[in-house]
Amino acid sequence: YCDTLDNPMFVSPDWQGEGWYRFTGASGHRMPTASPGEKHCGASFAGWLAVPHPQMPGDTVPAAKVCFHWGNKQCFYSLEVAVTNCNKYFVYELKQTPWCNARYCATNDSI
């Protein structure tokens, strides 16, 4: 799967294009802040948040760095997203990923 609309045959089931997303479900409730490793999250390039989540409810990190792990490089490629603390959960303004084999990851691990 991929988080881009460039290849309709392989679009992630929940990907609706660039915009605000909240992670829910079995995969997790927030983006991990450490690399899960390459070839995780149903993709070759696993996306993870390379900065801390905002701590206070209502706070937003407007240019949070997301890295995509590939090979021995935890940050083979990066892009910026916005992250907002909504008290009991986070929302992310996600951008289209650079390749079809790239996806944003989610986790239930503690922050």
Brief overview, please?
0% of the residues lie in helices and 36% in strands. With 111 residues, it is mainly beta. A 6-stranded mixed sheet has the order 1-5-4-3-2-6, with no helix packed on it.
Tell me what you see in this structure:
The chain is globular and about 35 Å long. A hairpin with a 2-residue loop joins strand 3 (60-70) and strand 4 (73-85). 0% of the residues lie in helices and 36% in strands. The chain has strands at residues 19-21, 45-49, 60-70, 73-85, 90-94, 102-104. The protein is mostly beta strands.
- What is the straight-line distance between the termini? 26 Å
The coarse silhouette is globular
Helix content: under 10%
List the helices and strands in order: EEEEEE
On the 0 to 100 scale, the average pLDDT is: 88
The structure class reads mainly beta
Pick out the low-confidence regions: none
Radius of gyration: 13 Å
Q: Main sheet, how many strands, which sense, barrel?
A: 6 strands, mixed
Give the strand line-up of the largest sheet.
1-5-4-3-2-6
What is the number of helices? Answer: 0
Query: What fraction strand?
Result: 35-45%
How many strands appear in the DSSP assignment? 6
